Amino acid sequence: MRGKAWLWSLLVVASLGWSVQVQAACSAVATTPASFGSVSSMTVLSTPQSTSTGNAGLSCTPLLLSVLGTGDHFYATITGSTQGGMLGPKGDVINYTIYGNNTTTYPITRGTRFDFGGNGGIAATYGLVFGPGTKTLPLYVRSIGGSNVAAGLYTETLSILWAWDYCSGVNLIGICLGRDTNSGTSQLTVSMLVTNDCQITTPPISFGSAPVVSGFATVSGQASVNCTKGSAYTVGLSDGQNPVSVGGRRQMISGSNRLAYDIFVSAGTTRWGSVGAARRASGSADVNPGNGLGTGSQIFNYNAKIYTDQATPPGGTYLDNVVLDVGF
């Protein structure tokens, strides 16, 4: 009888051990989009951009008692559009690379199954099946520099096939009671809003020196403007800091003394201003007229003259500041 009683007690304890378990369950769910936000075209061209999503479509409830093993796997197979990147309104494409974590150590190749792993893998790092709370896996995205593109919204929708196989329930002594083996598909949108931008080069205008106003020669120069691919824009020159009136003669000053001058379009006598028809359209550029090139400059020539119908002011260094602006 004692032997039987001892055996019965042992069986009761063992039975309690097998019943104490917590099941984990994974499923493919709706994702959180990965957006680069608003980025200027010149930045897209010169500097890779990064973004991420904290939810790439695999969601798992926790196991309170779990240790992911080397035989546990969480696979993602990512496919996208035929153009292989984010497509813009004028057919331009911004390419990018997808990563399994926030470094460049784990690049994901499209169409190739990527394993977020079990013991020691990315899934374990993010506590995918550990408590507390439901967990998701992130994805990281980094654009590839060198994309000369037009302004607009760029998007791509990725299809992510998730497949998982892992121990989904354990007892108090760590024995696996069952495995969760399943698959599902999620859609992830990657986007970037590209905005118009320009790079401008405007060397200073120097008239040199002369004893009288009639001794100053005409100065020729050029403004170099490189704007977003396909952008139509206008270029204006402000009236400076000391104009006679709005749209009137520009003036350099030295103390309380003034020296009137102006800046004219190309080699002509049409004043280059900042309002309405006084502005210059991109199509009127002297070199590469038309819409912006993105990777090439458009040249706007000018000539500057000191008015000779004014009295010669006292000697001194005369200065003014003129602002060149680009409008889209």
Automatic annotation (TrEMBL):
**Which residues belong to any copy of the Spore coat protein U/FanG domain?**
15-160, 185-323
Checking InterPro entries in the record gives:
Spore_coat_component, Spore_coat_U/FanG
User: Which region is the signal sequence?
Assistant: 1-24
User: Keywords of this protein's UniProt record, alphabetized?
Assistant: Signal
Keyword Cell membrane present in the record's keywords: the answer is no
What protein is this chain from?
Spore coat protein U/FanG domain-containing protein
- Lineage, opening ranks: Bacteria, Pseudomonadati, Pseudomonadota, Gammaproteobacteria, Pseudomonadales
